[in-house]
Structures are given as structure tokens and as C-alpha cells.
# Entry
Amino acid sequence: MNDVLEALINVGVLASAIRIATPLLLAALGEMVTERAGILNLGIEGTITVSAFGSFVVADKADSLWLGVVSGVGAGILLSLLMAVLVSSIKVEQVVAGLALNLFGIGMAFYLFRAVYPQTGSEMPRSDTFDHAEIPLLSDIPAVGEVVFSQHWLTYAAIGCCPLLWWALNRTQFGLELRSVGNNPAACDMRGINVTGMQYLALMFGGLMAGLAGAFLSVFLSGLFFVDVAAGRGWIALAIVIFGNWRIGRILAGSLFFGYLDAYQLSLQARGVDVPHQLLLALPFALTIAALVVNRRRSQEPLHLGVPYFRGER
Amino acid sequence: MNGPGADSVLLQARGVTKRFPGVVANDDITLEVHRARVHCLLGENGAGKSTLADLFYGVHEPDEGVIELRGEPIHMVSPRDAIAAGIGMVRQHFELVTPMSVLENVVIGTRGEAKVDLRAARDRLGELCDLYGVEVDLDTPVGDLAVGQQQWVEILKALYLGCEVLILDEPTAVLTPEGIERLFATLRRMASEGLTIVLITHKLHEVMEISDDVTVLRRGRVVRTSLTSEVTMADLTRMMVGRDVDLAIDVAETSRGDLVLDVSGLDVATESGRGSLKQVSLQVHEREILGIAGVSGNGQDALFDVLVGMSSADAGRILVDAKDVAELSPADRLEIGIASVPADRIHQGLMMDFRISENLILGRQRSGRYRRRGWLNQASIAQFADESVTDFEIAAPSPSHVTRVLSGGNLQKIVMARELAGQPRLLVVHQPTRGLDIGATEYVRRRLVEERDRGAAILLISEDLDELLNLSSRIAVMFDGRIVGEVDRRDATIDRIGMWMAGVSGVPGEALA
# Structure
């Protein structure tokens, strides 16, 4: 019992909560922007997988972690461009396209992985990983230093991205128009806004962020690639967007909280505590449904989310 | 008023043709719009007015012909080009981002700085509102505004972009008589300030009231462009429909029969509080049409919903043939002979991507007639569809065609054919002719009177006073969720009903106050 309680505020658990939250936050922020433009991209799980592979293979073969990150991001953007062509140009049903993107992405990543690393031995190929970016002085503070100031640079970047993104969405002409596209594309079209162009940009941003999430999983956290590297994080990111009611502050909070839940259940498992960790793993989805119910009245869900836009349709 | 000179032509179409699959929407259209005048495009639904407006606004490109602005041909591939050229448009269906404020809606699409300068925009808008006497709160989410107000937001959007030509597509459809008056006064003022107005309408008296010039369109072609001062309403009607039509159909008096619908003390609360029902009582008998008049948003929607079973009452009772139906579902009500024609036929009345035959049995798919051992009985459905298409003169290639391709009049005929099929005891009809052309309107009204003569009790909710005065046996007026007055058709006058609609009680002294 003491283990169960102690793990709640254990420094290691808190630090790993923030680490685990990072890819969730990255992917959720990207997805939020995509959805604000009216596109529901269910394909982030696949995008994360492809990006994790892209980062891993380049980091390993080119022996450059930075090139790895760049190629992971590139792969994410490429895959989201494919999504953009499907849903924004050809106007395929978005749910179908997103699910197809997942199957395609995960299958493709694993195929390429096997093509590049044909050996089937027990030894997994490993790439280097980034070191933790310990912030001078601040990281020396007891407890807080380890939890907050000894994270990866990408974690700081993800959190720093929040206020920037808020400003871009709420205080710029571009942000206003992006949000408008998701609510009423016809109105935007009539005002001369390029709806398709906006959706391409929003999807590419989502791909960029999912790409960073994928890179984080392979070349920051583990230095490994395996088929299940994303492990449902894409789906959790989708849930976080809903849980956060499409708002940046709540998405940040949601990511940290879900990251914490994951870190907590991992530590319980590591301590051999006999608590069904599956319950904790399922909690994000249950909470998301609860949030949907609570937010029903003041939902920020874009009004035109998931609906292809055709000019002049009645 | 004398005709303007050729040098004052601002916008013109020269030999413009626009085809859509299966139809020629605009056929060799040539017309000139002069600077600082109000130019009406008049025509029935489907005459090509909105298509022409879309061509002027770059929504579509003409297949043939050119559009010229200030004597120069302009090539527009998107509304952006039209906006840049100084053309603004308010479409019939508003293009507003409802969760956002008035101010934000106006700013969308303006090519300004990267950072939105809401303060400067607010000042500009304030000036525009003052100039034209528009009152609207700039920080309210547009979705919270009444429809009439939303229209002003649309107009402000166009003005804010500095348009020289303002095109309005059926702007009066959503307005009260008072609102129309205000709109027209403002439009006249804009014209006198140098703005050019193109107003699309199918209402003759509006043309006579507001316009300097009028172009009549019929079946995608220009019939004639004239100075409004040189034509009469009768001339315009002839040009519009190609025959003389008296819209008022012949309705003989009937003696009413037994009481069918007996509603008393009905309260229905709505989520927003707007459009709720308060202590509504009314009766409809056999062979009787009770008309419900009122400006939209005064409880008509709630009344319709509660009668057909889409919502439940908080208090009061609904009796049909002395049986309480309040607890019955819409399907159960249909079963006992309560049929309904909803106001929004596209979203509430039909499945646009279903076949016509499927829509004709929608809601009746469980009846023994269309079912056999749990399967749909295709043969009897096809037979009923064939009968309906013939009987209701539905202009469709075949009953198995997809519904979406039909015009508004034919869509309404499908709904009517379906609802009248069971020879309903009570028919609840909401805005049955809104948006229909003259031919279809006449048809629908005639059918309603035939139903009445057959013995049905009909509750007709409409915002068209002419329609109510023409068809109803009695007219009740709703204001703020209450029935504020009821009058026999023989004693009904537009003035009296108009006062009730405005919320003024029948006492003459109060009407003047």
C-alpha cells in the first residue's frame, strides 16, 4: 500500500511523467490545429510510427541525431501531405482516409525497417539518443531540478510552443482565418480565403508535430524502433484534443495528466504492486468521454469538423 | 426618373452563359447595372438569378460571355477576385462563422497585417454603423443574434471591404415588415451615397418599392430590363411567369365538422428561452384550416415540434379526437393520423441522398403495405412511388432517382405526397411554400385546400400573410410564445394581424403608442 502512495509523488515518476507527456503534447497540439481547420486526422498513430522509423534509421545510418529529427519531421509532413491530397483535394471521407493512413504508415514503417535491418536475431538495432538537457543551476535544485529542469530539449520546446501557438491562433489574422475554416469553410471561401490551402497548411503542421512526437520516441527516449513504438499514443493524443476541448491550456494539462497516469502505472508495475494497471491505461479514454459530457454546452469543437467542403453544395 | 446614360454603366454581363449538368442556368444573359442605382433582378426560383449573382461574385466562371466592370472585362476565378474588384455580396444563406463575434466575422478575409488589429477594425465598423444607422453589438457571437441582425453583419462584411457594388440575394426573406422597411431605407441611403445595389428578389412589390431598374429573368434568360417607373406589377408578373397568375387560389367556404385537435395551456421551454411556448391553447376542427401567423422565432418551431412529437410539453395537454397524445412518439402519432410537413424540407423532411421512392415511404417503412416478412416490399414501394410521381406531378426522371437533384418545388411535392398518402386526420404544416416558385406554391396551396375539403383538420403555420389570409378559416397570431389574437378570416385584415404580430394588443389606442 505504501508503494502505491509513495509512487504518486515519487520524483522519478514525476520526471518520467513529463517525459511521457512530451510526445502526447506534441501530437495533440498538431492535431488540434488540424482539427481547427476542419480536418479530423485519425492517422497520427501511423504518422508517429513512420516518423519514429524515419528518425531512427537516419540517426543510425547517418550517425546524426539532428538529421534524424529532421527526417522524422519530413516523414511526418510527407504522410500528412498524402492525407491532405486525399481529404482536402479529392475529398475522401476523413475517417476512412485517417484509418487507411494508420494501416499504411505502420505497415510501411515495419516493411522498411525489415528491408534496412534484415537480421532477425534477438539483438535489436540501436541508435544513439539525445542526452537530457540539464539546465545549468536550475537543474541543481533538489527534486524540482530533476523533475522539471533535467528534461530533453524537445520537451522544453513542446511546452514553449504552447503560448506561441495560442498567440498565433488567437491574435493573428492567419489564426482567425484558420479557425474560421473549421467552423464555416463556405463563409471563408466567399471571403476569398483559400480553404484547401489552409487545410493543407494545417495538416502539414499536424504532420510536423506528429513527426516530432515520433522522433521523440525513437531518438530521444529509447534509441529503438519497433512496430508498436507509438503504442496508442496517437489515439491518446486524439483523446487529449477532445479532453482539452480544443484549447491549448487544457491540452497541456491533459497531456501532463495522462503522461502522469502512464508513468504512475509503469512504476507500480516495476514495483510489482498488484494493481490492475490496465485500468489506469484505460482511464484517459474514460476521462475523455466524461469531458465530452461536461463540455457539451460550451464545446469548442469546430462546427465543420470532419465534413469535406464542396463549393456551392446545398 | 430618366434613364441613366451609357457612361454610368458600372457592372455588366455580356452574352453570359452558365451550364450545370442537365441545366442551362444562365443563357446568353446581357444586362447593365448603373452606378449608384438600385437594380432588381426579378424572377421565379430557378430563373437563374442566384447563378448570375454567383457569376458576378466569382463563385462560378461563365462558360461563355464576359463580365465587365467599369467597361473593362474582368476575369474572376474566386470571390477573392470579386472582392478585390470592389464587388460585395450577401447570399441568401448566410456565410457566417457562428461561434465568433461580429467583429471577428467582419475581419475574416481582410488582407491586413499579420496581427489582427481588432481595435482599428472596431473603429471602422463603428463608423460604418453610424453612417448607415445599423445597430449591432460587435462582441456578440454571431450565432446568438437574430436572423435579421445576422443579415446586417453580412452587409457590414461587404461594406467593410469597401465594395462599390453590393449584391443582395433575397435579403427580405428573413425580415419582418419593419425590418424590410429599415433595410430598404438604408439601401436607398447607400445608393444616394454612391453605392450600387443589385437586389435579387421574387417579390414584385419589393421591386416596385425599392428599385430604379429591373431586369426580369425567366428560365435562365433575360426577358427585359426596364426602368421600374415605366412598368407595372402586372407587366412584371407577365414577364416573370410568362402567363398571368393570380396567386390567390379560389377557396370556397366550408362548414367545419367535429373538433379534432384540442390544445390547452401548453407550455414548452426551450434551451435558450427564445421561441418557447407559454400557455398556448387552440382548436382545429374537421374541414378547417387554422392559420398561425407570426414573425419567425415567436414559438412557431416549438409549436410544430410539440405537436408532431419531437419535443414534449412541460404543461398543458394535446388532445386529438379527445385522446391525449402527449406521450406518443412521432411514429405513434403518425399511426393515429397526425401527418406533418416540416419547414426545413431538406434537413427535416427528406434524405437528400436517398431515392425518391425511398423518401416517399420514409417513416412508413414499417407499415404492412411496404413490408413483407420483415423485408421491404420493393414492388409495392415502386407502385406507390409511381402513383405519387404521377399524382403529384413530381418532375423527376424516375422514382428511383436520387432526391438531391430535384428543385425545391419537387422536393416539397415528395413530402406532401408522403404525408397525404394516409389520408391524415390532422395535418400540421410549417411554412409549406417558403422558397417555392409560383407554380409550385399554387400547387401546394391547392392540395392543402383539397385535403381540407376531404375532411382533414389542418394547422398551417406560415410567415406569409397573403397565404394565411387566402387559405385559413381562422387565423391565430403568435407573439413571444403566446397566442395573442385570433380572428375569423372574414374579419381579418392585414393591419389587425400586423399589429398582433408586432406584439401590440388589439386596442386601437395602444397601437398608436
